[in-house]
Amino acid sequence: MKIQMVDLKGQYLKIKTEIDKAIHEVIDSSAFINGPAVKNFQSELENYLGAKHVIPCANGTEALQVAMMGLGLKPGDEVISTSFTFVATVEVVALLKLTPVLVDVDWDTFNISPEAIEKAITPKTKAIVPVHLFGQCADMEAIMQIAKKHNLYVIEDTCQAIGAEYIFKNGKHQKAGTIGNVGCTSFFPSKNLGCYGDGGAIFTNDDNLAKEIRSIVNHGMTVRYYHDTIGVNSRLDSIQAAILSTKLKYLNNYNESRKKAADYYDKAFSNNPKLIIPGRFENSTHVFHQYTLRLNGVDRSKLIEFLGEKGIPAMIYYPVAMHMQKAYIDPRYKEGDFPVTEKLCASVVSLPMHSELNEEQLKYITDSVLEFVNK
User: Fold this and answer.
1) Domain boundary among 248, 271, 298
2) For position 235, which CATH number holds?
3) Is 242 in the same domain as 258?
4) What are the CA-CA distances from residue 348 to residues 128, 160, 168, 351 (Å)?
5) By C-alpha distance, which of 336, 68, 37 is closest to 202?
6) Which end of the chain is more exposed for a tag (fewer CB within 10 A), N or C?
7) Taking residues 95-111, what's their average pLDDT?
């Protein structure tokens, strides 16, 4: 069986009958936009997350953009986020003519450093965007304390961590994306909960913010053809919603399968000084959107080439930090300003991670990695 970074076909085949039925029901209804399937999925995801409001939208990038629009952020407002992330997090800040303020991350968890956030706050700071990278929560308790102290909004980027839970010091559990003022996620096909095209959603427990966001995603309308605010066209179509409803029932199982694969990797690599396994934050569960190793004294390019020759894909998330990207070059930042992020960009490699990995594949992958690093 061919090893994939993400085995979408294998996952589909296991629930093919249910998926096909859901798609055909939407086609038969011809309610392709904002139909019953969208409303059903919205309600189901609200129940799953324990969120008061879920607003489906077209993709995860627009979820972040609309969330910032809904909060009323204005050009020049500073938004703090991480330099070690996918570009969408910073892209929407720039598109709205806000000012991105980048900070470093924690070496073990890859997530934004609360200490770095605190140091970056100025009178112009209006929001923090913690990214729950690779499948586990950032330190939300500390971040929320900082936000409260400085009267800042918190926009959770949950595009890689849907289903993960933050564990507060008092033992309370809360789903990623439901802790800050607003949370955002992506349903890109490779996500833990992915559709068969583009899709996203925004979560909030704030009634007024939810009303504003619902208007923004639909051209600024609350009543048809009456536009009370400037909006965008960002809707989740009914076919994708039907697919997501079907897959949502299996999300916990998918995440558990990923965790078992991660445990296998951890056991295989934990005693090798050349391979540093991903740290697991004690205040969060981990749903392993990616399994990312840090290499110590290993030629990453040659490792990836070696694995490729054996039919094993491997990826680098992310090879270039945001502050070093040409589109986001800023005189405030220079090489060396974010030592942890820059070291991670030079040393991380991600191995196949999905719900369909079996033990034979995992053994082949781990044996191959160890063969290279030990030779």
Assistant:
1) 248
2) 3.40.640.10
3) no
4) 25, 17, 29, 10
5) 68
6) C
7) 97
- Of residues 361, 293, 353, 258, the one with CA closest to residue 110: 293
State which of 248, 268, 290 marks the end of a domain. 248
In order of 208, 292, 301, 349, the CA distances from 316 in angstroms are 40, 9, 10, 5
pLDDT at 1: 74
Which amino acid, 198?
D
Looking at the fold, whether 192 and 333 belong to one and the same domain comes out as no
- Rounded mean pLDDT of the chain? 97
The pLDDT tens digits of the residues spanning 323-356 come to 999 999 999 999 999 999 999 999 999 999 999 9
pLDDT tens, 43-92?
999 999 999 999 999 999 999 999 999 999 999 999 999 999 999 999 99
Rounded Cα–Cα distance for residues 268 and 290 (Å)? 17
- DSSP code of 331? T
Say yes or no to pLDDT of 375 above 90.
no
The overall longest dimension of the chain from CA atoms, in Å, is 68
**Same domain membership, residue 332 and residue 240:** no
Q: Which residues contact 169 (CB under 8 A, 6 or more apart)?
A: 141, 283
Could you tell me which residues come within 8 angstroms of residue 22 by beta carbon, excluding any fewer than 6 positions away? 37, 242, 243, 245, 246
Predicted confidence (pLDDT) per residue in 127-180, tens digit: 999 999 999 999 999 999 999 999 999 999 999 999 999 999 999 999 999 999
Give the range of the structural domain holding residue 44, as residue numbers without chain letter: 8-104+111-248
Q: What is the CATH classification number for the domain harbouring 355?
A: 3.90.1150.10
pTM: 0.97
**Domains held by the chain: number:** 2
pLDDT value at residue 32: 96
- 244: in domain: yes
